Automatic annotation (TrEMBL):
It comes from Sulfurimicrobium lacus. The lineage of its organism: Bacteria, Pseudomonadati, Pseudomonadota, Betaproteobacteria, Nitrosomonadales. InterPro entries: Amidohydrolase, Bact_exopeptidase_dim_dom, Peptidase_M20, Peptidase_M20_dimer. The keyword Hydrolase applies. CDD domains: M20_Acy1-like. Belongs to the peptidase M20 family. This is Hydrolase. Mn(2+) binds at residues 99, 101, 134, 160, 358. The Mn(2+) ion enhances activity. Its cofactor is Mn(2+). Keywords: Hydrolase, Manganese, Metal-binding.
Amino acid sequence: MIPAILSSQPRLAALRRDIHAHPETAFEEQRTSDIVADFLAAAGIEVHRGLAGTGVVGVLRAGSSDKAIGLRADMDALPIMEQNIFPHRSRFDGRMHACGHDGHTAMLLGAAEYLAATRNFDGTVAFIFQPAEEGEGGARVMIEQGLFDLCPVQAVFGMHNWPGLPAGQFAIMPGPMMASADQFDITVRGHGAHAAMPHQGADPLVAGSALLQALQTIPSRTLDPLDAAVLSVTRFHAGDAYNVIPDHAVLGGTVRAFRPEVQDQVEAAMERICNGIATGYGVQVNLEYRRGYPATINTAAEAEACRSVAAALVGDEMVRGDLRPSMGAEDFSYMLQLKPGCYVWLGNGLGEGGCMLHNPHYDFNDEVLPIGASYWARLAEHLLARQ
């Protein structure tokens, strides 16, 4: 680790815990945004605010090169009731930093402060503090509002803590890291009836149950077995009474994949099955399929650069290149659709602090703060090395 960043670990931990205690959900990160902007300004970094409402971008230049890179951290919390009892637990019921974005913010701030003090690089670093990663597409909004016009970077990089990996270990792979995340709603409209006289109606629950099971054949019987995909029905709502067959049922869920072609296949197969169920059960079935976050795909050259930097920082044995990608999703993917880049995982630990993401008992492991901040700083110095 970089000694100057290691010595700042207590201060970064205090900052991280303050953010943890004051979580703000998507597009509401005003306090966090103020903290970030003030920190960057105090370090002598040019600050831009307002992209996606609460987004903050710090721009730091050194030397004369026109090379530029972007380093991104997310800032938002989740609508979860925290179950921890430590002093820095959330002060707001129903809001919690259960994904470690408080730690991501603190690590990038630590790197920004160090790079501003040393300026041992030639080019421009854009420190991108993004709102609304958790399902609301803050990265997409920042891009639409001119992120890459403000910061015409040649490559962009992201990092996420990863519980289950030993603390301080990196996972860096070329190709897919995270899946796409589509959503669907299906409305099955039948004809209501008395539950004692079902023959007088057209039961949307029976049709919906058949539909739910039929949808599960798409990954197993429609797709190439070598193409990973997940189709999960997560909602099934119908009726309010014990003696009434309702007139409609609503199903919803998610589809995950790594390739757009697979998304297209799944959507087409769902439409076909919905039409078949409608005909077979004498009901109307309407499918609403919405594309969500794209898959997060690392480019090979940038992944190799990140692997080299991480290995020099923590040792080859602490850099994994053999992990499977996750079927979770990440809106950093929007940035990678437009720019080369790499998204890495940093181990959050196996025990205390290693609780899984989106869990009400999760907490970011402060011991990895200087590791992540040092990685960001060394990556900038490597990619923008003086000639």
